[in-house]
Structures are given as structure tokens and as C-alpha cells.
Amino acid sequence: MDSVFAREAGEIGNAFLAAPFEADGWNAALRLFARRTGSTHAQLIGIGADAALFNFMPDIDASYQREFIEIEAWRPEVNWRVAATGRPLEVLSERHYDVVRERSGTDEYEEHIRRWGGVQGCQTTLIQGEGLLVGMAALRTERDGRTGERDLQLFGTGARHALAAIRMQQAMAGRGAEMTVAAFDAIGVAALLIDRHGAVAALSGVADAMLSEGPDAALCLRHGRLGAVRRDADALLQAALRRALDDPSADGAVQQYWIESPRAGASGVLCELFRLPRREWDFGFEPRVLVVARKAADIPAMRAVPLRAALGLTAAEAEIALRLANGEAREAIAAERGTSAQTLGTQIKSILRKSEVGREAELTALVNRLLR
User: Fold this and answer.
1) Among residues 146, 166, 161, which one has the least CA distance to residue 37?
2) How far apart are CA 73 and CA 109, in angstroms?
3) Cβ count within 10 A of residue 329
4) pLDDT on residue 325
5) Helix, strand, coil distribution of the chain in percent, nearest 5
6) Which value, to the nearest 10 degrees, does the dihedral of the CA atoms of residues 72, 78, 84, 86 take?
7) Which of 97, 133, 181, 257 has the CB geometry, 3.0–4.6 Å to 204, for a possible disulfide?
8) How many CA atoms are closer than 13 Å to the CA of 213, on its beta-carbon side?
9) What are the strands, taking DSSP E only, across the chain?
10) Does pLDDT of 300 surpass 80?
11) 270 falls in which pLDDT band (50, 70, 90)?
């Protein structure tokens, strides 16, 4: 190994190992990697079961990413690079592409890759499994020519450092999840973080205790996933989790559901689901959804009088607010009061307005603070 090669390999290694800790670290590492391997672009791509989860390529026009998605270029039958996937850290290059292109790939992808300067190059698989394939590539134009042996060796060396850096990013994501639920523990809140597969990535001690309440527990864990004990409530909860996981437009949005206990008379749980914003370099490891579970307070009906005075409610509104805070479902409240769901909805809107809160969960928290 000559001294220049050793120096360049060291630079690449240092850049990748610093990437998880610096604001623009991954972009800087990929730019350096492209230069040192004589490539136009360096690429990190993560592919899941149904779609590309991430596709990082510094200094590429945003229309590249849109076009990649439009032609479904994460599919091996479309993209011969994906079809050419080898063993982890096995470096594949043009001679492998020549074989695969005879049986895979589409005209759309050929036009796409020529337009963006990536007909030549090399690639490797960094992670395969865990419901995720993470690959790395160096893309070259036809003018750049085929990848030489020295550049292939530099690519292989850099790929090993990139894998170490991604594993570090993954460990940091896991540690971040643990620290997040620990913060909820400090304020006595039951919180669960859900990963992109729908599995519970971390949960606070309060949440763990709530799930372990025996026959009164409204929520449970099944094979590492959050569920409701009652079948009807579980169908509702699973649909809500799917919406929170799958709908990018729901970033920052909140879904609220009352989950009733399977035992009559036992306290229900209010579940709030928050879709977490994606971080640019999370590689699919960061949690996707935060679930906050709040037990309904067991507040006696006689406390409706001070509640009415505190919030300026009518007698009917105070009773409804109290029942909502106790975890009763809207349908049950309406049926017991002999009113329609529409009438109850209008009354609840009035309660929220007078209480100066925007959601039922906020009303529940307010009633607890006032009456406990």
C-alpha cells in the first residue's frame, strides 16, 4: 500500500467516523468519498420492503429524488443496481452490472441514470436484514470511465468505515429513545416510542407498569407491539398506529383515542399518538411515533360544582367535562344523557372554548389539575 493511498484511506475513514457527530458530517464524508474514488457522486440508500426509505446523495438536484420515486427505482426489476445486490461488503462494479443489465432494469431507469451521471461505478451492501437493506455506491459518468482497481480498493476501505459510522448512528438513535422515555418517567408519564415497523422501541417505567396491571389493563404488548386488550379497541388502535406510521402529511399531528378496560367499571386510558418528524440522517433507525397513555381520573360526580365555577360551565357541561376526564367514551355519555352524538359534540366544543383548551386530552389534564 503506497503512502498516498494510505493517507487518502485515512482521510475517508476519519470523515465517516466523524459523520454522526457533526452537523453536516454525512454530506462532507460522502463528498470526500466521491472525490477520492474519482466519482461524480457517492450515494447511501436504504430500501425497505415496499419503498426506498432514504436516498442520500450530496449536491444532487431535488428533481433526482422525485424522479427516483416516480419510476419506483427501489425495485430490482426496475433498477439493475438493486438487482445486483451482493453479500455485505462485497464490492460490485461494472463487470457485474454488465451481467445483471441483460436480465433486469427498464428503459426508464436507463434514461434516469444517464441523465444524472451514474452509468458507471461500484457499490456494496452495508446492512442486510432487520427489514432494511442499506447500500453504498460511487457513481461515475460515461466520461469518467470504468472504476479502476485502486479506486475499488479505496471504495472497499471507505465502505467498512461507513458501516461503522452507520452502526454508531443506530446506537445513538437507540440511546436517544431511552433518554426520551426516561424524561417522561421523570414527570410520571406513560410513554412508548414506536419504530418504523410498528414495534415498541422503548417505553417508560410508568408505561411498563400500566401494561402490567392484570385484568384491569386496557393496553398490552403482543410480540413487542402495542395493542389494546379489547378487540374493538385494538382494531381502532392498530388503524391509528398505521395512519401515524404511514402518512407523511401527519408529521406533528395528534390522534386521540379512549381505550376502555376489558373489565366493566375499570378505568380506561386516553392514548395520544404523535407522528414524530423525520430527521435528515436517521437511516430508518429513529422512532416514528410517540404514544402517551393517560389513565382516566376517578373523580366523584360531586366535584362538578367547583368545576362549573372554575371554568364558567353550565351544569350539563360540567357533568360532561367530568365524565370525559373519567375516561367515558362519547357514545356512552350521549346514551346516558339521552342526547344525540351531534348535540354532545356541540356541547364539548363549548366546553373546550370556555376552558381555553384545544383538545379533549388537554381538558382531561386541566380537570385533573383543578380537582385532584
Assistant:
1) 146
2) 7
3) 16
4) 80
5) 50, 20, 30
6) 30
7) 181
8) 21
9) 41-47, 52-56, 120-129, 132-140, 190-194, 200-203, 219-222, 225-228, 254-259, 269-275, 289-295
10) no
11) confident
pLDDT exceeds 60 at position 195: yes
Report residue 309 as a C-alpha cell: 365555577
Residue 339 has pLDDT above 70, yes or no: yes
- The pLDDT of 319-337, averaged and rounded, is 84
Burial 146-180 (b: 16+ CB within 10 A, else e): bbeeebbebbebbbbbbbebbeebbeebbebbeeb
What is the C-alpha to C-alpha distance for residues 363 and 358, in angstroms, rounded to an integer?
Answer: 8
- Cβ–Cβ under 8 Å, residues 90 and 129: no
Of 299, 309, 304, the C-alpha closest to 319 is 304
CA 340 to chain CA mean position, Å: 38
Which amino acid does the sequence have at 178? E
Say which range, 11-25, 88-102, 299-313, has the weakest mean pLDDT: 299-313
pLDDT confidence band for 304 (50 / 70 / 90): confident
Q: Please choose, from the candidates 73, 46, 276, the residue with its C-alpha nearest in 3D space to the C-alpha of residue 169.
A: 46
Q: For 346-351, which contacts have Cβ atoms below 8 Å and span 24 or more sequence positions? A: 347/316, 347/317, 347/320, 348/320, 348/324, 350/317, 351/311, 351/313, 351/317, 351/320, 351/321
Measured CA to CA in angstroms, residue 67 lies from 41, 55, 133, 309 at distances of 17, 12, 21, 60
DSSP, collapsed to helix, strand or coil, labels residue 183 as helix
Instruction: State the DSSP code for 278.
Output: P
Is residue 238 a contact partner of residue 255, using CB atoms and an 8 Å limit? no
293-320: average pLDDT: 80
- Going by pLDDT thresholds of 50, 70 and 90, the confidence category of residue 39 is very high
- Nearest CA-CA partner of 80 in 121, 110, 53, 125: 110
pTM: 0.71
Task: With cut-offs at 50, 70 and 90, classify the pLDDT of residue 345.
Answer: very high
For the chain, what is the mean pLDDT? 87
The DSSP symbol for 147 reads P
Q: Within 10 A of 84 (CB to CB), how many other CB atoms are there?
A: 21
